[in-house]
């Protein structure tokens, strides 16, 4: 069986290191190279593959290998430009991308197959499919809010997952998220408007990633919580995407739902 060649960006990062370990233990995958900043490369020799701080060097050496990126928005945008030139398929898990940065990724997706998901766990992606039904069945009397908790090292807020959940909830309500999102409450803010979705962020310790959607109704409430216990759940999703994206055509940014439905 031919193995899928993989390049990992940020191989010393929390996600990068998890991906490198799982890739080495997966007989369907082959580690074709890793990219990491020069000051942080020590200890990567044991991977037995090319290591560089220059993504373009590694992508050019390993033409056709799928690049998995869990780094930071500026790194991801530069990588997408490089992948568009070299033709390497790209799986992106990085969150915190601005609208302009998302447009840059979309431009790259016209040239090479690109997959992006703000959360690669099975549970969150099932939740994204189920939430519109809950919104429809509960109706307008139920106020929708959500909260997220992550480790103290996380740089972006709210999490990419919280933003995606909020977007799906707003769409199900028939609202524009930009008009109804409430990311901060303080002071004499008055009564809660009906057309609002509160999104609250907590940070601390080593929490891998918790998301809760609340439906507050008359005399009752529903709370739907997803808790990630381990980064392996995200890494497994990314590796599944890496095996799949190489068989897709450029032209769009592929999602977790599309992958699951096509398999
Ligand atoms: N979609 C999903 O399912 C998930 C998404 N994420 C997202 O993934 C991203 C990374 O998260 P996490 O692993 O916790 O973060 P880390 O900070 O642990 O990892 C980021 C890595 O990228 C490296 N890096 C920075 N600049 C470069 C560069 N120019 N070239 C190569 N590597 C570079 C960092 O190196 P250095 O430390 O030297 O700067 C670090 O090793 C975040 O946006 C997070 O939100 C996280 C988990 C799941
Ligand atoms: O930074 C993290 O750790 C995570 N980031 C993703 C996000 O922003 O939603 C996914 C996951 O919750 C972990």
CATH C-level class of the largest domain is Alpha Beta
Number of strands: 12
Q: Give the name of the CATH architecture of the largest domain.
A: 3-Layer(aba) Sandwich
**What radius of gyration results from the CA coordinates?**
20 Å
- Structural class by helix and strand composition: alpha/beta
Query: Which stretches of 5+ consecutive residues score pLDDT under 50?
Result: none
What is bound: which ligands? NADPH dihydro-nicotinamide-adenine-dinucleotide phosphate, ligand LZUJQKHR
Instruction: Quickly count the helices.
Output: 9
Provide the CATH superfamily of the largest domain.
NAD(P)-binding Rossmann-like Domain
Count of spatially separate domains: 2
Shape: elongated
Distance between the termini: 19 Å
| Helical content (DSSP H or I, runs of 4+) | 25-40%
- Main sheet, how many strands, which sense, barrel? 7 strands, parallel
What do the pLDDT scores average to? 97
Order of helix and strand elements from N to C terminus? EHEEHEHEHEHEHHEEEEHEH
CATH topology of the largest domain: Rossmann fold
What is the strand content?
15-25%
Q: What is the spatial order of strands in the main beta sheet?
A: 3-2-1-4-5-6-12
